[in-house]
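Hey, why these numbers?
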Amino acid sequence: MADGEQPNWQANLTSLLRQESWPDELRDIVGKLGNNVPLNLEDGKFLFNYSDLDLIGHLASIVKSARFGNKVFFNVNVHINQTNICTLACKFCAFRRGRRAQDAYQLEIEEYIEDLSNYSSYVDEVHSVGGLHPEWGIEHYTELFSRTRKEFPHVHIKALTAVEVKHIAKLSNLSIRETLSRLKKSGLGSLPGGGAEILDDDIRGVICRGKESSDEYLEIHRTAHSLGIPTNCTMLYGTIESIEHRVMHMIKLRELQDETAGFQCFVPYPFLPDDSRLPEAQLATGTEVLRVIAISRLMLNNIPHIKAYRMNLGDEISELALQFGADDIDGTVQKESIMHLAGSTAPLDHDKAQLAKIVSNSGSIPIQRNTTYTSFVEFIPPKVPARRSLRMATGD
């Protein structure tokens, strides 16, 4: 089926939920899940405050299993961040540089193509996001994507956050629709979900002043969906937001999904701290990360995939997240700057066998997918020939 879902998964979920005994305080929520009724704000707040995290994780795991069975998805991709030069200065961002900074960089088109050529023989997706370069308008990106598509026709281009699209449109005196139409024609295949942060403008005014507003983020994704461009969506948590902000964020995404059905995957990730960027941040613990994954699965009944973003969470927490409702672990990545400058220590050089081991360790079956969740192949690691035992001359 589309998105890798089990046939009749909702009926299967109803049956699975009825096979278990649930505490009285959870029965209303369980009933809604079994009848495909969206959870509301109060339900979400209750789940965030509920003391038994293991039970919430178990409930999310049942929902995930009903939908996708024992499968966990990954893809073979590379991240190439085209520039760290940015006209904004978001408080949470460790990646951004001013143009005169000693370590500022911009990959010209030839450099980008050369960089991608190092990975193109085995990846099927390039994921490219970066700063808001003050001179790169529509012509730069249409040439970049056209060249990439020509040189590497098998590589899906997933690129540009909503604020990058807004910036390109403004520089080029174009509407969002015309900007996205031209980018799609040149080779853009999908948008990542970055930049959602928290969809509350008071919060955004503190952590990312100057970025797109909450409504602009949603409208850019709405426009992409209307043009047949699938997108992901994200949530950055652990800064200054409340539980209510998190739940309302999910509800706003769910409401747009009801309109467009264009979101493929939800990617929640915690703020990675340092001593200078956002000292007032409310930093997420490992158990909170697992709770957010589980509640995402329960709240977002119409967004198929929940991703454990390994670049942010690390391998160990990602493996646990696969038991708390996540069904996707992103990809091989190979190189990445934004999360690692923010403090991530997740390995960058995982191959398919290493990703498959994380999935298998969680008790799941690794399924290699394409970017748009329309092609699936179970990944079976190649067998390593057994070493011959060395016998001593005596034959012992």
About this structure: DSSP finds 16 helices and eleven strands in the chain. Residues 296 and 306 are 7 Å apart (CA to CA).
